[in-house]
Design a protein that fits this description.
Chain A: InterPro entries: 4Fe4S_Fe-S-bd, 4Fe4S_Fe_S_CS, FTHF_cligase-like_sf, Helical_ferredxn, LUD_dom, LutB/LldF, LutB_C, NagB/RpiA_transferase-like. Chain A: Keywords: 4Fe-4S, Electron transport, Iron, Iron-sulfur, Metal-binding, Repeat, Transport. Chain A: GO terms for molecular function: 4 iron, 4 sulfur cluster binding; metal ion binding. The complex is a heterodimer of chains A (472) and B (262). With 472 residues, chain A is of the alpha/beta class. Chain A is 51% helix and 10% strand. In chain A, helix 3 crosses helix 12. The radius of gyration of chain A is 26 Å and the shape is globular. The termini of chain A are far apart. Chain B has 262 residues and is of the alpha/beta class. Chain B has two domains: 116 residues, no CATH class; 124 residues, 3-Layer(aba) Sandwich (Rossmann fold), CATH 3.40.50. Chain B is globular. Classes of the chains: A alpha/beta (472), B alpha/beta (262). Chains A and B meet through helix 1, helix 15, helix 18, helix 19 and helix 20 of A and helix 1, helix 2, helix 3, helix 4 and helix 9 of B.
Chain lengths: 472, 262
């Protein structure tokens, strides 16, 4: 049974629950601050950092402006290289295509390369329903899967877990899914890594079918690119007979040369490394080397909807480095699950509403899951202006009539603010009423952990009139 | 002022929050600006920059308040604002609110470069860092998110503070982290906001300062509200209320006095 984000509560409710988990808060704080610090050092050592960001944004914008043409080019090149391209409008269609492809091989046990898109569409659960056991092979994704958990971060899905929690999961679950954890496993990182290595090795050597995502798809050659730290992805990509890559349409880049910019930014932002340990590329099929059968499933699942949003479309530049969540003070207190999606943090707060629309209360709550502090704007490698998109989405929510009481209140106050006499009376009234109010009048949500300031008896404007009126 | 006198060049936009809840900030701004020779006026028609409306998603209402702002301040050569977040509205947000109203957009574009956050006005426009202030207390400073990223004040407030006579200035740990106020964020997401604010308050206490300063009373209201609720006697003061005090005023009553540590 796999958990899913289906039916997740709106952000304030889910976040309140997560904030109360002290262990989780400490895990997330520690992990994000570590990556944040390493990233800052590596960004600072590049004199051309800002130009790299400009270039990356320009590359991605060029792709988005001509997406249809680049995708057709991808289809042509992949087909010419011996692969088969499939198009999926939504999650259900993508899952059906992958399930049918796996069924056709007759295999029941397959391996997976870490992929946020397959998490987004719920592929593991769909395969499970079809009697296919898909095992994750990335260390963090393995921890999440064994723990029947959900990813909490796009780069480090198990970032919310500490070593002792991981030890417990391995000791309890590994034996049910293959090679058990060694007796007396401790929470020493080297021991944990070795346990995972032995457990996963069986999967790699036995699997005939692998499912991957991709960080980039190069249109000019039909080449797919996966960036990872452990080499598990490369094992899957090279050992399987059949490789099925499930990729969001926005992952396209025009040329190989674009990777020069994007790969430098991705490694430094994602893990605080100058270069990722493993960067694998594959193009179609070659006789006698690697998978004999290659399928590329290009998935929309709301991306054309996001593309149609003039302000929000910049979210599709995202290269999933996670820098925005590592720097976000809200994410730091909640972890990823509060966002009800595999995309948490600032990118989740904008991408989920853009992909899925603002019709349900969960996605409509996400644009408000930010203080607008702007820290994310400053680290984004593709220069997504998160605060602009958040504000625009808030305007869409407000215009959609979701907050009727708030609208009336703000309209009323706003109307008074445009009428000097009315506003003057209101300010004066606040000053007169202030001292009469019971001290520390409660305000829902605010006064739980804050005292309100006293309302002074004299407003500034009254003071000014008293002094300056006489002076004049 | 005689009716036919030329209109003064510099207007104080005191902001709605300061007007109603923190009038001391406005009074200090007037005191300080006059001490520095600025003839400052308070246009009484002023109300609110519309930030609360804008940040909550109400753009048409923001556009109406932007129109009101332009009508109120359009005749002044300079507009000084003792709030980084409100000072950032004309340049940052009015253009977005004015989409579809080219007339308003034009007037906003003309007014925005003349709108200054107060510390920026002191350092860049008046060219002063030592404003002749005296404040013999231990002070720490919270750089608000809008002062960092909307009005981009950089180290201007720190330079002004360090030049204060008698002050014992201490750096705030994790200073650049948001306090969790975020306007309606603190109402819509009280649990997360409370957690962020709690961490900020803890850092303030770590400094041993008796005063927390900032250039936005909204954030100070948030952090101060937490400190008060938890029973800590740390005072929150807008930066200008420190800068306005001179040796003649003496120490601020009720605060521990420190030996000069400059």
């Amino acid at each position: 049974m796999s958990r899913s984000f289906l039916g997740w509560p709106a952000f304030p409710e889910a976040a309140a629950r997560e904030v109360g988990n002290r262990q989780l808060r400490e895990n997330v704080r520690r992990a994000t601050h570590t990556i944040r610090g390493k990233r800052a050092v590596l960004a600072a050592e590049r004199p051309d950092w800002e130009q790299l960001r400009d270039s990356a944004a320009a590359i991605k914008d060029r792709v988005l402006a001509g997406l249809e043409g680049y995708l057709l080019q991808v289809e042509e090149k992949v087909t010419a290289a011996g692969g088969t391209v499939h198009w999926a409008r939504d999650a259900a269609e993508a899952n059906r295509i992958v399930t049918d492809l796996v069924r056709a091989t007759g295999e029941r046990e397959i391996v997976k390369v870490k992929s946020m898109l397959t998490e987004e569409i719920g592929l593991d659960a769909a395969l499970e329903a079809a009697g296919i056991n898909a095992r994750e092979t990335d260390l963090a994704a393995t921890i999440v899967q064994l723990g029947d958990d959900l990813p909490s971060h796009v780069v480090v899905p198990a970032l919310h877990r500490n070593r002792s929690e991981i030890r417990d999961i391995f000791a309890r679950e590994m034996g049910r899914h293959g090679r058990p954890a060694p007796e007396g496993l401790t929470d020493d990182p080297a021991e944990l890594a070795e346990a995972a290595r032995l457990h996963l090795r069986e999967k790699f050597l036995g699997a005939k079918v692998a499912v991957s995502g991709a960080n980039f798809v190069v249109a000019e050659t039909g080449t797919l690119v996966v960036v990872e730290s452990e080499g598990n992805g490369r094992m899957c990509l090279t050992l399987a007979d059949t490789l099925i890559s499930v990729v969001g349409i926005e992952k396209t880049v025009p040329r190989w040369q674009d990777l020069e910019v994007l790969l430098q930014l991705l490694a430094r932002n994602a893990t605080g490394e100058r270069m990722a340990p493993y960067t694998s590329t594959w193009t179609g099929t070659v006789d006698g080397d690697g998978p004999r059968d290659f399928h590329l499933v290009l998935v929309d699942n709301g991306r054309t909807r996001a593309l149609a949003d003039p302000v929000g479309r910049q979210a599709l530049r995202c290269i999933r480095c996670g820098a925005c969540m590592n720097t976000c003070p809200v994410y730091e207190r909640t972890g990823g699950h509060a966002y009800g999606s595999v995309y948490p943090g600032p990118i989740g707060a904008i991408l989920n509403p853009l992909l899925r629309g603002l019709d349900d209360p969960q996605t409509a709550s996400l644009p408000y899951a930010s203080t607008l502090c702007g820290a994310c704007n400053e680290v984004c490698p593709v220069r997504i202006r998160f605060t602009d998109v958040l504000l625009d989405l808030r305007a869409q929510v407000a215009d959609g009539g979701r907050h009727p009481v708030e609208r009336v209140a703000l309209n009323t106050v706003g109307a008074a603010m445009q009428r000097p006499l009315l506003w003057k009376a209101a300010v004066k009234g606040a000053g007169l009423l202030g001292p009469l109010l019971p001290a520390r009048t409660p305000v829902p949500g605010w006064t739980d952990n804050r005292a309100l300031p006293d309302v002074p008896g004299e407003s500034f404007r009254t003071w000014w009139k008293r002094n300056e009126g006489e002076r004049a | 002022m005689p009716p036919n006198a030329p209109r003064s060049r510099t207007a104080l936009f005191v902001t709605c929050l300061n007007d109603t809840l923190f009038p001391g900030t406005g009074r200090a701004a007037v005191t300080l600006l006059r001490r520095l020779g600025v003839e400052v006026d308070f246009p009484p028609g002023q109300s609110c920059c519309g930030q609360m409306h804008f940040n909550t998603g109400y753009r048409r209402e923001t556009a109406r308040l932007a129109r009101h702002f332009v009508d109120t301040f359009g005749g002044y050569e300079e507009i000084v604002v003792p709030s980084a977040s409100c000072a950032g509205m004309p340049a940052e947000s009015y253009p977005l609110a004015a989409v579809g109203d080219p007339g308003l957009a034009r007037e906003v574009a003309e007014l925005a470069p003349r709108t200054y956050e107060l510390t920026e006005y002191l350092t860049d426009r008046l060219g002063v860092e030592d404003v002749g202030a005296h404040f013999p207390h231990r002070v720490t400073y919270h750089p608000t998110c809008h002062s960092l990223r909307a009005t981009r004040l950089g180290d201007r407030p720190h330079r002004l503070l360090r030049a204060v006579d008698g002050i014992d200035y201490v750096e705030l740990p994790a200073a650049e982290e948001c306090c969790g106020f975020g306007g309606t964020f603190s109402v819509k997401n009280p649990a997360v906001s409370g957690a962020m604010n709690g961490d900020k308050a803890r850092h303030v206490l770590e400094t041993g300062a008796s005063v927390l300063a900032a250039v936005d009373n909204s954030c100070l209201m948030n952090i101060g509200g937490r400190l008060t609720k938890d029973g800590h006697p740390v005072r929150t003061l807008h930066l200008v209320e420190i800068l306005a005090r001179t040796a003649q005023d003496g120490p601020l009553p009720g605060l521990p006095v420190v030996e000069a540590a400059r």
